[in-house]
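Practice problem: Nucleoside ABC transporter ATP-binding protein
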Amino acid sequence: MRDVTEIAEGSTRPTTAGVLRLDQITKVFGSLVANDRVSLEIRPGEIHCLLGENGAGKSTLMNQLYGLLQPDGGHILVDEVPQRFGNPRQAIDAGIGMVHQHFMLVDVFTVAENIVLGREPGSAGVLSMRQARQRVRELSARYRLDVEPDARVEDLPIGVQQRVEILKALSNDARYLIFDEPTAVLTPQETDELIEVMRSLRDEGRAIVFITHKLREVRAIADRITVIRRGAVVGEAAPSATESELAEMMVGRAVSLTVAKEPPSPRDVRLSVQHLTVTSPDGLVVVDDVSFDVRGGEIFCVAGVQGNGQSELAEALLGVTAANAGRVELDGVDLSRRPPRDRLSAGLGFVPEDRKHDGFVGSFSVAENMVLNHVDQFASRGLLDLGRIRGHATGLTDEFDVRTQSIDTPVGSLSGGNQQKVVLARELSRPLSLLIASQPTRGVDVGAIEFLHQRIVAERDKGTAVLIVSTELDEVAALADRIAVMYRGRVVGVVGPETSREVLGLMMAGVPHEEALAAASVTTAEEEDARLEAEVEQHRGALQHDEPGPPVRAAHRDDEEKHV
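Answer key — structure tokens:
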């Protein structure tokens, strides 16, 4: 007879996870097949990574497992017992927990209130906050996820909010934990902490599903990797697979993961931002006294965890968000009080972070979208020159490799990568002084990323000032000639592209550059000491067994003798 444990409603379930199996799961939205007969096994004591491009169907698949969506075909089986989850409560009762990419927390509630929400402890209908706080402290201690029970969620840093999400899932005794793109809003240090948490949960015997499109993270944590492309499983890969091999499985062809670019040749300052301040509609300062310059012929990247003012900065430079104070100059001309149309006419190109809402009109054709913000250049005496518009679109479609059946195809029907190519092609089709690209490769497949990066570098080499806003550190490292790190609306520091991920991560958490550099140097020294200790121990062990040990390098001889 299997060992069981009671849960809140009085039902029972095994204390240890059995195999959870998805068999031929199919989900269709209209003409779109989001999941096409997907089968996979989720096993206890294992971190199973679902790797695929944005839009590949990973989250849709897990939303069905969590009861947010219902399959149109196939079966979910727990310990070979068929299950059908009509809502998340039924999935939770079966031992499934999900840590969502966009946190499912009530901002005005405390940590304790969020964690017990729906399973409030107490009697006679009276909530016992003492029991709720004690539950949070027990879980925090057990999983080394330090959070204050009485802290209000809206006052917590993003990384701590994610701890609350994890504790909420664990408070329901989840045996199967789904992490949906959990590192999207974390610093590198917070990502490392999360990986350690997932490993400890795996070692307890829980089954972990880790959804991501980031190759570096997959190789760091996966016990097993399933690759999904266009809604279907295209194969499994070993954790030892290279990033290039994984990328090829994701895209279906070989791609280059590095950006080929020559050292920059900076010219005169083209964009000058001086003491720019922006407040939100509710009076919160979101861009706080920001100043920087961008020269022609360089790529200036603004890095930081999402939500630290980067989006508002980009919108203020375009003029769609009004600045409360400060000055914006382009080629020496003050644009601070000018509307977006004047700034575009002055040579500013803009690729918005949300292309579907701000970058194109989905029902308009490829040709129409390619002239949206300079349509007057294709008009004469109040009439559009349709022939010129079509010729313009045909040339850009070829030049930017836009995969479309026709220039008359609605842009909304194209893939994310081709939609982004349309937006970038439009912006680069006229002479620019400044190109601003906010999250330029978000939701874009690896192959399209390669092309988009090449075009951005080519624009830099023409002498254009390029400003990139990105939360992807790999992208920042690949493109940047200089990096400004933002935290809570302020620029913490401006550094070179050689800056380590550790230093950038500390700066993204608000640590000033010099302090971050010193902290990272201490960490590096400690890591080097640990490495030397391990090397000497291995060497000493080999000598005790009369086996040849690893070569001892003369440069470290003093350190090694000290450790011995």
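Discussion: The longest helix spans residues 513-544. Students who identified this feature from the tokens alone can consider the problem solved.
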